[in-house]
Amino acid sequence: AQSVTQLGSHVSVSEGALVLLRCNYSSSVPPYLFWYVQYPNQGLQLLLKYTSAATLVKGINGFEAEFKKSETSFHLTKPSAHMSDAAEYFCAVSDRGTGYSTLTFGKGTMLLVSP
Amino acid sequence: EAGVTQSPTHLIKTRGQQATLRCSPISGHTSVYWYQQALGLGLQFLLWYDEGEERNRGNFPPRFSGRQFPNYSSELNVNALELEDSALYLCASKVRGQGLDTDTQYFGPGTRLTVL
Q1: In which residue ranges of chain B is pLDDT below 70?
Q2: What whole-number distance in Å separates Cα of residue B15 and Cα of residue B80?
């Protein structure tokens, strides 16, 4: 069964600093991986998704993630944090192996951005 | 293109009552998923409907049920409400099939259910 681990339930950065949100997964088959963002009192918005064509994936709002098979990781980064990036971020893996196409989510990381 | 819509935005019920939540998928999407996001428990998969059939369900009791209509919209019903059912219920939709694009789920804004 697939699983996702997000290290750190809260990450605090200063505005302009590097953002690094960690995600490790386990999967029995080559995974499909996703990052979603959730702003307060809203649903989930797709930030980016992993394609096998490239290990570095660019998403919206200046975020990108790098797939590292050897480390089973898909960490999310942004070079310079903005106040508007404050939100909760979820990493997810698609349950392709069973054919059920369900997503398994990590527990989420709350990103706090201070001025 | 309109996104996934959910209604109502907020729903307040008392213990033992029934709640009905509704979801309209993105046009052209045939699969609908329901997730529960309860405080401290993260996002948990509830149900998956595709082409009018229930395809998979998560580890929830039978009082959580639903259906999908011919126009692919969906309803989630929660019977005999308990206090711990208070949560944000998220609906997501995707196109049919398997593959990276077809595995991408798009989420609605959610329905906040409060059980008193």
Answers
A1: 1, 97-102
A2: 7
pLDDT digits (tens, 9 = 90+) for A84-108: 999 999 999 887 655 566 788 999 9
- The single-letter DSSP state of residue B59 is S
| C-beta pairs of B47-51 under 8 Å, 24+ apart in sequence | B47/B76, B48/A100, B48/A101, B48/A102, B49/B74, B50/B96, B51/B96
- A42 and B109 within 8 Å at the Cβ level: the answer is yes
Summarised one tens digit per residue, pLDDT across range B21-44 is: 999 999 999 999 999 999 888 899
Looking at the complex, does the CB of residue A69 fall below 8 Å from at least one CB of chain B? no
Interface contact flag, A102 B56, Cβ < 8 Å: yes
Instruction: Write down the pLDDT at residue A94.
Output: 83
A110 contact B CB<8A? no
Over residues A20-25, the mean pLDDT reads: 96
